[in-house]
Amino acid sequence: MVKLSQKIELRIEKIVFGGEGLGYFQGFAIFVPMTSIGDVVEAEVISVKKNYARALVTKLIKAGKDRVETDKITFEDFQGCDFAMLKYEAQLRYKTNMVKEVIEKIGKLNAKLVLDCLPSPEEKNYRNKVIEPFSQKKGKIISGFFQKRSHEVFEVEENMLNSKLGNRIIEVFKMIANEEKLTVYDEKKHQGLLRNIMVRTNSFQEAMLVLVVNTKKLEESLKRILLEMTQRIPELKSLYLSFNTKKTNVVLGDKNICIWGEKTLKEELFGIEFHISPTSFFQINVPQTKHLYEKALSLIPDIENKNVVDAYSGTGTIGMLLSKRAKKVYAIEIVESASRDGEKTAKENRITNIDFICGAVEVELDRLLKEGKQLDAIVFDPPRKGIEESILRKVAEVAIPEMVYISCNPSTLARDLKIMADCGYQVGEIQPFDMFPQTSHVECIALLQRVKS
Description:
Layout: E1 7-15, E2 21-25, E3 28-32, E4 40-48, E5 52-62, H1 88-105, E6 129-137, E7 140-146, E8 153-155, H2 164-179, E9 194-201, E10 207-213, H3 220-232, E11 236-243, E12 255-261, E13 265-269, E14 272-276, H4 286-298, E15 307-311, H5 317-323, E16 328-333, H6 336-348, E17 354-358, H7 361-370, E18 377-380, H8 389-397, E19 402-407, H9 410-422, E20 425-433, E21 443-450
Parallel strand pairs: 3-5, 10-11, 15-16, 15-18, 16-17, 18-19
Antiparallel strand pairs: 1-2, 1-4, 2-3, 4-5, 6-7, 6-9, 7-8, 9-10, 11-12, 13-14, 19-21, 20-21
Helix pairs in contact: 1-9, 2-3, 7-8
């Protein structure tokens, strides 16, 4: 048994689901983040449970073969990038194995259904949206990550996940903010101006800057500083102020005002133009998103002659892409504002074979069938919690022949696939995609087909 704060030496035997390394000390399981198989480390125990403990690396004694060889990166640089110490081919291998493990253990399915994880076109600097909190260190304004289980900000010189343009905008703003001696928000005192900075970029090397401030009014001095950004960063197309005076962890305030430039940032996928605002949801890694959606569309055979349901449609990104090939698309979304935004985007792109339906999936499926609509396939792209069992059983009840499941959480995917398998659906291939290089997160697409009776 180990004790809290005890320093131990151990060898990492495997990477478990979630990305942590697993080793054993005197037969007791120890989970250690930011390690690779074969690493021999000195680690300090930070928590002890009945059957396992967690520890943080204090010294790398011997590097495993999958670890990157560099003296420039320290463990602290990995904040938010829990696979950054791994060679990229190892990241892909670990992600494939993590998906196989949960598909077998939770889904009770054959791990051979899981294909090798497809690499991202960009291994670094792929994020088109970044939010960093501000803090102060030795009188200097900094930004970065919140440290785990803490509200202390850890500054990173250049975030390897952010777009290079996003990193440059943040650095220039901090330079100006320090020159102007702006104040930083203190959540304990509820005082200070600067709370967070958000930068959104697109495929055309254009950017939107959103500054989140602890004030209720637009001060001319702040507007002047932001306008100076447009002189230093010509790629900026939009400037927003978000007023957030609440004692909350929610980043954006209720009031977001465009003080300069365009109100939205344009992005394009498969010839469809999307307009992105500060609050819009859009996929983070656009080059890999194109591959992900192309795969999803290819899984539905003879799609040109089929009516397809886009469930959990959000603003209808997948639905509009489906509409390029499918005969008819029904995009079902329970959030009214998202459904309205999707309808607006479809009109702007002159897409006429998609219907946006605001309501609960199980209710609207019933209604469509009662109206005599033929539903040939359904595409799901749910949040991390997966799909409610009642919805899955409704899909099985109405006997939709084909289902494509896009998942950002392999555990809930495995759970839901088991439910559908028990309801008479055959699970086909499961394709992992590396949407988030340098992290342990992995996206998957699965195909399910109703077994004919």
